[in-house]
Amino acid sequence: MLRLILATRNTHKTREFVELLGDEFTIRDLSELRLPQVNETGKSFEENAVLKAVGVSQQLVGTSRCDVRMAQRAVPTFVIADDSGLEVDSLGGAPGIFSARYAGANATDQTNVAQLLSALSVCSDRSARFRCVIALAQDGKLLGTFTGVLEGTISDASRGSGGFGYDPLFRPTGFDQTFAEMPLNLKNQISHRAKAAAALREFLRTVKAGR
Q1: Is 83 a catalytic residue?
Q2: The whole model's pTM is what?
Q3: Do 6 and 27 touch, CB atoms closer than 8 A?
Q4: Which tens digit of pLDDT belongs to each residue from 97-127?
Q5: Which position among 67, 83, 109, 156 bears the catalytic label?
Q6: Where are the beta strands (DSSP E) in the chain?
Q7: What domains are there in the chain, each with its CATH number?
């Protein structure tokens, strides 16, 4: 079984990746490791995902070389990191890579949602998409990136109590429910992250087969 480090401290995201990748893999996140945070200074989802995956992977290589106790625990060398967000056409693709802090540095899900509804209050075009890019690194080197996109529209008010982030506003094309109204298993079948994770899973299966 391949063991993976997910470069996040977001428990919602970790839980979602565990569901998406299934029991073929063991996933741990950064809450179990004392590693410096990697700054997301990229100009695209792909750049940020690569920065995080490669940065954490490089830190693990350095840790395993200088800390015998850590090396004895067989720290996983595969690191995955994602960057994802919402792109709204009438806002020129915003909030984009700033989705998590659209309402400011200390933004919450609620303030981000309110900010987006305010920005769209005079817009008739509410088409949007969720985009996710997952980067995979090993021993400090990038192995590949995997992208998933899901088209949809932004509702005129929050609907549903599930999910997180912009889920209460995003209604995928072909569905009457927002992400926050959907059962988790349905969301995990169609989401942008599910599409990117499916491509990652297939790649990792080839890695396992080659061992």
Answers
A1: yes
A2: 0.89
A3: yes
A4: 999 999 999 999 999 999 999 999 999 999 9
A5: 83
A6: 2-6, 25-29, 78-88, 127-138, 141-154, 170-172
A7: 2-209 (3.90.950.10)
